[in-house]
Every structure is written in structure tokens, then in C-alpha cells.
Design a protein that fits this description.
The protein is an alpha+beta fold. The protein is built from 6 helices and 12 strands. The chain is globular and about 50 Å long.
Amino acid sequence: MNIARGARLPGAIAAAILLTAATGVSPARADGTITTIERVKASVVVVGTFERTRTPPFQFRGTGFAVGDGTLIVTNAHVLPGAVDPARREVIAVMLPALARDKVEVREAKPLSVDPGSDLAILKVEGIALPALKVGDSAGVREGQAVLFTGFPIGPVLGPYPVTHRGMVSAITPIAIPQARSAELDAHVIRRLSTGSFPVFQLDATAYPGNSGSPVYDPETGDVLAIVNMVFVKGTKESVLTQPSGITYAVPSTHLADLLQKLR
């Protein structure tokens, strides 16, 4: 379409051209992304522990999201506590996000499957099912692909309000790489190399404490392609760094699909 110099454009068309020029994203795609984020937010929960006599009763530990029939919650294995205190009636719990609700809702969650190898865990919650996210095929993910992830960064400070970050798969790289000198090998790297290194996604977006367990998903479909991991992966890939980098890593969803298959 040719536009004459000095011609005035209708406001909607002008706004659309400015949006595309500024972000490189068409208005239609932007609207689709907004819709996807809204849908995903309803499936994302806070994972922590609950003890009625404690102040505060709910202790934040990370992020999770619903899959399957909507009562299965996926998170990182390291997000779960090493143990809970039954004498104090402490339990693993999830907190539903504060979206349109007047107050948050907390539900007890019980571990169904925990896989230390991929640092993934599946919990079971009671009550009304949440909207479940579809687990996509991470085998088709390519470097340069745009992704989103939604979770609760710095949850104890910012509260149970899901936050979405946009990023790109900047590399597909082994979870652990042999070091040039034996002195640079620590227990985490040795264990990972001996049990089998597998590819993880390196993202150019920055995740924060609390984002562990966040779904990494396709901006158009909302299909989960990976799970953010801020501790387990960094411990093996960046063991020689005294100051960890701001790089974010994510475990491909193929490992989650395998874990779900074993539950059937």
C-alpha cells in the first residue's frame, strides 16, 4: 500500500503502523499474545508450605502450573522442602494467584512424583480443577525462537501476582560441561556428568528467585515448552563462577512428558 507524503491516516491504522515499527510485532500477533498470557496466568500457582500457627502461615518457595486434569501441579523438585513438620501440621501447599479474587486461596498439595534427575516434581491438589496447560513438544524448539514465561519473581516481596517475561531461546546447550581442570569440578558437576548430561534451553530473559518452576511457553499457543530452573541447572553449568550470571535456564518439556506418562 502506497501512502502519499503528508496524508493523514485514520488513528487505528496509524497506531498499528507505529506498534509494528516499534516492536516488530504485528497488532494481530500482539493481541494473540495478550490473550495467551491471560489464559496462562489462570493456570499458574505459588508453591510453598502452610502452617496455620506460623506467621505468615504460607511460606513462599517457587512457582508451579496446572497440567493434565487440572489437579496436577508441576514445579521444580528443589522447590519442595526437604521435609515438613507433621507435629506442627505443616504441609506442602499451593496458593492460587490473586487475579480477580478478593482474597487468595490456599490448597494442600501432595507429591505424586519427584524426579531428581530432571529436577521436576508433580503435585496433586484437591478441589476444583484449574485450567490446565498443554505440554508441548520441546523437540521442535529452535534457537532464536520467541518464548514467554510466567511466575512469581521475588514472591515474598511482590506478592501472589503472576508476572510474565518475554525472551528468546538463545542456545540449546548441555546441562553440564566437563571443565578443563579437575580443580574446577565440584560435586554437582561430577554427579551430573556421571548420570548423563542432557540439553537445556538457555534464555536471554532474566528470571529471579521465585521463578523456579515457571512454565516457558509459546506466545501464540500457550503450549509449555520448558520449565524455568534457577538452581539445579546453574549449579552444574556455572559451578566455576563466583558470581552467578543473569542467564536463565529451562528444562525441556520432554522430561515432564515422560514423568506424566509414568503416572498413567
